[in-house]
């Protein structure tokens, strides 16, 4: 506990004015804390264990199928856990519980968006994907289309999404580790980079899968314990928990109102006396009044400011829902199971675990209001939470489980980052080796050993690039990156993948032009919108050229429209032959005849 | 996959029954999920006060059970699909594949 008290962290942008994507990354400047021994010992145990698994996996990883898809021998239940482990990032654990901690109900709205894409993946994507593909979603998108252009497009979509997601994770990791372990930012980023390269390069998909499974189990059990302790404190009654939290927020608002009243009195006296500091006193009184008004207005039991603009809300929903179905590292997980049946089972389990996790973060956020914000040991001199509101869940771990459990949760947060970045790296590496090298450069005639070698080299290169970008972006505002990744996934990858499976009329020309329009429009609209134009580039508020934070409703529609348009306008010989191959593809996608099986060991 | 096999699948009425039933079922569930989620989002966007209505005399608001309902429905709808697909659809698929091999 002592250690946390000494943190004295001023920075760490509070989530009070949370941009819609902040849950994707740990934001703002943070200061180093002193070494946390429990956390370090537990983390080292995790690293030693996972490296042991990597060694075990390396001996079982020989063929390309082993490397990319763990030999196709993962069960539905295991894959469900691994998908959950791939999807629940440290930032979403800390960010969403922090959002509940500050705004209450809005945190729940936000987390729901991250869940609702999964059923749609089950109903429409998972089985067809498994029946048609081998290692990457490009296998499916290019199934009956021209290999080179479609693979190049899909690899670009993959690498852009992976890069954005990876930068957000690396920067978040550096800051979080600095905060939790007292490790220097640069060392933290390098350590994450080295470990992820080791897992992926030597252990391939098998090691990555097990790292994700272990992390999911650790995170779910840690969060379950915290939620259990919170509920125990509230006598296992939601109503009691909400009452306690509302009372805390109410008392906080009253204290602020009192402060504001005092400040306004001081200001009035200063003005009356014509004192030299009168204007400063008025300014601080105004600020106090604003704070108090905001606190009085906040109702943690009802929707607040998160969804104020219907267009933005729907657009965010589209990006989250369909972006999930276009994330290359998630789609890749469906090739690790034996058949379509296991693929659909894995999404069922994943949906259950992820939904359960979001309910836990909701309880944890409310628990933090009751148990953390009322405890002066977790606050600095100004009354703000030590380390910023993103630390709410970490402080709660201390409050309900003491030093040892705090160490456990810190180590779990680190493990969580490793599991996510390993999945991303493997996905990026397979886009380069399987899509670009083997299919485009070698025209499908690559030697398997060479392909694996290229994949390992790419893993190393991606690791180095991720470390450099992580260091480069340390002080940048990266809140928009995960949002951009989801928007691109929804506007470029998803429309092409979806139409390739569902629409006979799709042609190469349509897919590449439509997909490219989706990708470019998502990027451009985010840059011209408030998240980058104002928050990153520093243009004045209100000067943004595109009014919405989330472009998906426009960019995804554009991608579908232009893919359709350029496909119907395509009267070439090639287009007719591509459309002619749809029937065979459709039969395979529905029946699994000819689908990749699991490799025998 | 041989062309003759494709042809046999295509000429098998069971295959068409499978495709029709499964597509209808998948799309119905997809629409159900979209309606539930976007209904929730639109309610927040246009009438946030509805979700802030307290239940009875407590502080718990209508938004809490509704939010939990959206989460649970995602899981339940997935479960409904998987259950039917694992039994009925897989059985039909197996029959179609067997018949195509002959």
Summarize the structure.
Chain A has helices at 2-5, 37-60, 64-69, 76-87, 90-103, 105-115, 117-132, 137-141, 147-181, 185-233, 238-272, 278-297, 310-324, 328-331, 340-371, 392-441, 448-472, 480-502, 508-528, 530-534, 552-568, 573-580, 582-591. With 601 residues, chain A is mainly alpha-helical. The relative contact order of chain A is 0.18.
Characterize the structure shown.
- The complex is a heterodimer of chains A (about 600) and B (about 100).
- Chain A contains 23 helices and no strands.
- Chain A is mostly helical and about 600 residues long.
- Chain B has one domain.
- Chain B is about 85% helix and about 0% strand.
- Chain B is built from four helices and no strands.
- The longest helix of chain B has about 40 residues.
- The two termini of chain B are about 15 Å apart.
Unreliable runs of chain A: 1-25
Structural class of chain B: mainly alpha
Unreliable segments of chain B (pLDDT under 50, ≥5 consecutive)? none
DSSP strand (E) fraction of chain A?
under 5%
Helix segment tally of chain B: 4
Radius of gyration of chain A: 25 Å
Helix content range of chain B: over 70%
**CATH class descriptor name of chain A:** Mainly Alpha
Keywords:
heterodimer; A: 601 residues; mainly alpha; Sodium/glucose cotransporter; B: 102 residues
SSE blueprint:
The complex is a heterodimer of chains A (601) and B (102).
Chain A: H1 2-5, H2 37-60, H3 64-69, H4 76-87, H5 90-103, H6 105-115, H7 117-132, H8 137-141, H9 147-181, H10 185-233, H11 238-272, H12 278-297, H13 310-324, H14 328-331, H15 340-371, H16 392-441, H17 448-472, H18 480-502, H19 508-528, H20 530-534, H21 552-568, H22 573-580, H23 582-591
Chain B: H1 3-10, H2 13-46, H3 48-51, H4 63-101
Helix pairs in contact in B: 1-4, 2-4
